[in-house]
Amino acid sequence: MTDRPTIDFPARIGVWWASESWSMPAAVEVAQEIEALGFGSLFIPEVGLKDCMVQSAVFLAGTQRLVLGTGIANIHARLATIAEGGGRSLTAAYPGRFVLGLGVSHGPLVENMLGGTYDKPLATMRSYLDRMAGLPEFVEPGSGRPTRLLAALGPKMIELSGTHADGAHPYLVLPEQTATTREILGPDKWVVSEQAVVVGESAEEQMRRAHLHLEVYSGLPNYRNSWLRQGFDESDLVRGGSDRLAERIVGQGSVEQAAASVTAHLDAGADHVVVQVLGDGDPSWDPRPALRELASALDLKG
Predict the structure, then answer these.
(1) Is residue 251 one of the residues assigned to a domain?
(2) Dihedral (C-alpha) 229, 184, 151, 298: value to the nearest 10 degrees?
(3) Domain containing 212 — which CATH number?
């Protein structure tokens, strides 16, 4: 049906989990349960604390079929050729099981934490992808290039994810934005959307966790502009987001309602959705009890 590269997702729903505060042996145990529960992938972020390419290699080695994705690998954290070479190595070792998600990150993180320069995100990403494409074929010969997704929120970056990559990884978006992404990319590119949810807890605690999750993002121009394009207004962009923003962006209510917020992205045109279960703010919070409930509600076949 399409000429896009193959990703061997065992299921259409996966997990997005930030594991930086976990030791790798303990984190691998979480990944193994994610796989056993029937989820099809684990996508991990990169904020400058751990190398997501190294983590991906460890997670891939510790699981059997789980697809590993970077959500996202920060292009300011490594040379384009190193990103391409690393992606080829993982693709060669684990065909169909690695997805190289790339993003321009955010000005404060790039400049204050990584000591880089943040300027013209679209042009920066296009140049980075061109340099990746220039890596000689003798590097991991026969592996082919890694499947690439871009963290794409605005229309121009979404278009670039179609012309220079294999699709998009929308984050903190409504199903309607997933539909817009699909419309821009057409049927032949991958759309892997993220959906945050809270499982269990009282209504008040669910809302608290949603606002806590949105605290940092609500101060970043990339997401503020994205939410304005999605129909929110300036009154929704208070620190931590308005209740209206939190209710629509984060799946809340019963576990069945949380599950429905995930499958809504599939109905809107996503090929795969990664669910992020929100904890109480403690980095060592264990996502597995919530994921067990969610796997049951989603009728995953573990």
Answers:
(1) yes
(2) 90
(3) 3.20.20.30
The answer to whether the Cα torsion of 26, 201, 290, 264 is positive or negative is negative
Residue 152's domain spans which residues? Answer: 13-297
The segments of the chain whose pLDDT lies below 50 read 1-2
Burial of 196: CB neighbours in 10 Å, binned 0-12, 13-18, 19+:
buried
Phi first, then psi, for residue 214 (nearest 5°) are -85, -5
In this prediction, residue 299 carries a pLDDT of: 97
- On whether the CB atoms of residues 179 and 118 are closer than 8 A, the answer is no
Q: Please tell me the total count of domains within the chain.
A: 1
Grouping H, G, I as helix, E, B as strand and the rest as coil, residue 244 is helix
Detail the DSSP E strand segments found in the chain.
Answer: 13-16, 41-44, 67-70, 73-74, 98-103, 147-150, 167-168, 190-197, 250-251, 272-277
State CA 301 to chain mean position distance.
22
Rounded Cα distance between 9 and 59, Å, is 15
Domain contains 5: no
Element (H, E) at 214: helix 203-217
Query: Is there a contact between 44 and 30 (Cβ–Cβ < 8 Å)?
Result: no
Condensed to tens digits (0 to 9), the pLDDT of residues 143-190 reads 999 999 999 999 999 999 999 999 999 999 999 999 999 999 999 999
Domain-located, residue 4: no
pLDDT at 1: 32
- Which phi-psi region, left, alpha or beta, contains residue 105 (left: φ > 0; alpha: ψ -120 to 50)? left
Would you say residue 21 lies in a domain?
A: yes
What per-residue confidence (pLDDT) applies to 178? 98
What is the token pair recorded at 244?
A: 């209206």
